[in-house]
Fold Transglutaminase-like domain-containing protein.
Amino acid sequence: MAQLLRWFKADCFRWVDRLPCAACGSASTEDGGPLEPSEAERARGADRVEAHRCRDCGAVGRFPRYGDPLTLLETRRGRCGEWANCFTLLAAALGFEARLVLDWTDHVWTEFLGQDGRWRHCDPCEGRMDSPLLYEAGWGKELTYVFAFSPAEVVDVTPRYTAVWPEVLARRGPASEADLAGVVEDLDARARAGAAPPPWRAPEARELAAARGPGAGREAGAAELAGRETGSVDWRLARGEMGPRAAAASLGGEPGALLAAAARPGAAVVGRLCGGARLCCVGGVPALELLAPGACVEVEGLPQQVGGVCAATGDGAFTVEAWLRARPAELRPEGFQNPLFSQHGPGSGWELRLLRRGVVCFLVTVDGVHHEVDAGAAQWPPDGWVHVAGVFTGERADVFVGGQRAGALDVPAGRRSHFEGPPCLGRNPAWRDRGARCLVAAARTSRAALEPRGFLPAPRGGSAQE
Ligand SMILES: [Zn+2]
């Protein structure tokens, strides 16, 4: 199944937001509303057609939304409905027990029966398996009803896709759960035309009942905290599927040590957007916009300390880094007024600060004493993304700009003093009137003194010199 999934996503099917213009080749087309399907389109299984109007020449292209998986084997394009429809057909054709899963909040994927007799999540558009909490924890969806369909059954599989069943239950209605279960049971029996339930039904019913029980919700794993990957950033933002929870994933990037450090087994790490912080897209790079006064992201849901040790950076050597854009003239005059990334209060913690001149300053606290090093001679790039990092080796604090060491300071031996509060991007967690106006594409903490080659890679779609 994993091979099929890889092939299907990489080589077989294509995602379509907007079709390019067939008349002039322009990629700039816009929604031209619904069209009536032609007879031929209907015959091939299209129940609706989208008009994609060219912004350059005005030509209107037709995008029939086919529901017939055999047609989709030829067209090989569409959005999640087409993807899941065609993928489920292929999985069944290869001998898997497979079914189509319809999420009432507008997504479709596949389930297949594993060798252990359990139904497993498989999302062809995202290329993901066994990540059932992806939608709730990663995309920020508020699920209501999720049903699995095959020619021989209908099952309410919602509990498999939530860690907070009581919250989902509160959103369901107006039908009572008992009435709904009756309707599903009836449809299921009719689909089977009187045949006995399949052998997997009883264990699955027990599994789903257990997931409805008190305290059943497991917490999302790291793979389930990702925002939606398919579709353009604008499309995903419009759908809210890069929502606040997705912010946490974009903070971490791969491999996301901020997230990893937080991984008290299964802890859901959430970056909360505060004070007008929002997600945006700059030159194709999704980023956090921290321009409003007080805008910040607070990383919640992780233990801030474990046994008195900072969860994000550990107790010894560590690295904090970020890819950002800022206009130095818009920064406040004093460095301490411009915290970019910090977990820092009186006599405690660490901080990366932006400077009008010198780009960045790194602070680490040992035995209650702050040690600050700035990149005194470094210059802001005229434009584009810049990488900044603070690296504490245990003996020395180094500050990097664009992967080059730009300052170093010996730090006396002692114990690091940890701040009791969340890591914060764009605002200091203790002095909330302090904050750096900037855009952040990625930020990460690591429990090691990284070499520059280990720093976060440049944001995709842009570069330090763009
Ligand atoms: Zn055109």
Remarks:
- Residues 326 and 438 are 5 Å apart (CA to CA).
